[in-house]
Amino acid sequence: MNMNAALAPAAGLSEWFPEEGEDRRARQALMRAEGVTRLFGPEKGCQDISFTLYPGEVLGLVGESGSGKSTLLSVLSGRTPPDRGRVHYRKDDSGWLDVYQAEEAVRRRLLRTEWGFVEQNPRDGLRMSVSAGANIGERLMAQGLRHYGQLRRTALDWLRQVEIDAARIDDAPQSFSGGMQQRLQIARNLVSSPRLVFMDEPTGGLDVSVQARILDLLRGLVRELGLSVILVTHDLAVARLLADRLLVMRRSRIVESGLTDQILDDPQHPYSQLLVSSVLQA
Nearest 5°: phi and psi at 52? Predict the structure, then answer.
């Protein structure tokens, strides 16, 4: 499948706009959020969120439960339309796509090809009724690959990369442990070489030893593949390990942003200070 043709804008759409006049750094950006707001009640959701994401960058969204992190992630990933604001994604060198001005089919295609989404509960991100190999191969088939031998070889390779016994390629995910399911979900998302991956608490609900293995695996794959990632986590240790930059959220708004080490070592906002001190005292 020709990826450029598959994601070409439909005739008459105005979501693509030229880059003339933008500075060099802006032209290199991968995603931009501008005033993104999605509220379900007073301070429930996210509001007035603006930021820029760059290729190869891991951006962490941190804050207490209910701060709006997962709502923002859902909007950014094309799953939940904003009440107002815009999400722009740069498709290669052909211009910017306004995600919510594009047709729904375009957003679905992005999620199957150029984007990935790692769910907190891996059962939500896997097809439990088909084999591990089929879960991995499905995204490649969405890109047009139909050769069975190549699909199977690629699935075997990715099982090894995420430390799952290749002999289990024909086993159903429901027979796997929670940690194995999460590693399989990671393989399913990364096999298609996405440019951007959304992660919602990827180690939540796993015991400490399994968390450590998953985090080590993620850190290695993200750096090796040069992925851009938007990561939701309430765990500042996870944020420090994976994220280059943080957005601290409280009551639906960003209260502080900056480099991860800067925020975690010298937080400026009182709420950021409270988050960091609560970890130190735990």
Answer: -125, 135
